[in-house]
Amino acid sequence: MDKPAISSSLERYQRLIELSCDLASQLNLNELLFRIVAAAADLCDAEQASILLYDALKGELHFEAATNMDNPLMRGFAVPVENSIAGWIVTNREPVIIEDAQHDPRLYNSVGKAVQLSTRSLLGAPLITKGKVIGVLEAINKRSGVFNHEDVDLLAALGGQAAVAIENSRLFLQSDLIAELVHELRTPMSALNTAVHLLNRPDSPSDQTARLLRMIGDETNRLSELATAFLDLSRLESGRVQFKSGSVDIRHLITSCIEVIASRAAERGIQIQTNISAELTTIQGDSDKLKQVLLNLLSNAIKYNKENGRVTIEVIPYDGDLVISISDTGAGLNAEALGHLFERFYRAPGTEKIAAGTGLGLVICKRIIDVHRGRIEVSSQVGVGTTFSVHLPLQKAIPLKGM
Ligand SMILES: Nc1ncnc2c1ncn2[C@@H]1O[C@H](COP(=O)(O)OP(=O)(O)O)[C@@H](O)[C@H]1O
Ligand SMILES: [Mg+2]
Prior knowledge:
The protein is α+β, with helices and mostly antiparallel strands.
């Protein structure tokens, strides 16, 4: 039988304290969000829990994490503030218990359908920090009995701790990223500064002028690429990107990527071959984001290839995944470089001289593939070439997950 109420109540408050300490020490936002939902389900004895973050600019809430990732609950799924329980909580800034969710007019029905959640009962609490509502924490379907006032108190208290932890991790993430960006900006800035200084000298020879102007052009291009990639990454890392899930035909996607990069390949005399042996090439995912991944891998395979080299794109089914491999005949990467490839701003030694870049492309690719529950593998042989393989699950209706 159940333990006496008092001791169980005491235990639950002790558990709240433990969980709160655990949250406070977690600076990785994605990991933090998953710990918060796990804690909410645990504390409130609920079947599931989820967290929605509020985007004040758009006036929308987005699902960010849920305990039941087997359920097709999609990260980034937008929920309007009107006609949703979460929206009601944001507007009223107070917790709510709903005993019969299916018959509550505030339930946003398309969410229910979209995520196939059979919500019977629901307990929700706002995430408030410094007087601002930043989201909503929901516990869904009490395992036995109904949500009671102790559950409300516990979830509200957890929500307060969670909100502070989320804000901390966002600030940490931003300061970290910005510090790295500023560091990266130093080199092009100082190159530009020197060029302008030299151009200003009255005795600047005309061949030097042409060279300096070209350099200024290259460096400003690089700065603008850096700005775009940086924004992409910081939005992905702070969970502010919405993924749209649909059927994506990889065969089709590859054709459209080749169209984009064909002229760049031709300029360097590089041949592109495709070898698609998979019969089924359709997966679930975000077509634009997957295109971004393939384009970066293909453009790397061209940039870092030798003149008149070859790029081979292969698509095979393997172990329940669709595997897209992109191989080149470039200089290859040694073990040391392979170990750092997916770090922000990393560029292998000597790369600077071969081609312009930001060192952010692969980090962005990995993030996007993670959301698709896939992975990227690399193998390389110095002097022979490099192969990047993207594994994406072939199963139908696999949900995108939180990163
Ligand atoms: N196909 C490849 N062959 C050799 N080196 C590569 C290849 N792809 C990526 N790299 C190395 O990994 C680094 C990071 O790649 P990426 O993140 O796409 O940045 P970028 O292309 O902007 O340099 C590159 O700068 C390069 O040193
Ligand atoms: Mg790149």
